[in-house]
# Entry
Amino acid sequence: MPLPMVTILQELESLAAGWALFIHHKKVPQFLLPELSERNFTYLIKEIAEGDVKLLIYR
# Structure
């Protein structure tokens, strides 16, 4: 797995209930999305501009 995806999944393992993880990314991480769904996370994606994507991941 690419390092950003691994890092995000590791951070989510220790995410406390009621908290969210906010991520600045350069593109929509297509391979991460099914992993999030499989782990029962909800996510919001906002594409600001080319090369500027924001993600909010929570349960």
The beta strands are 20-25, 42-49, 52-58. The helical segments are 3-13, 32-38.
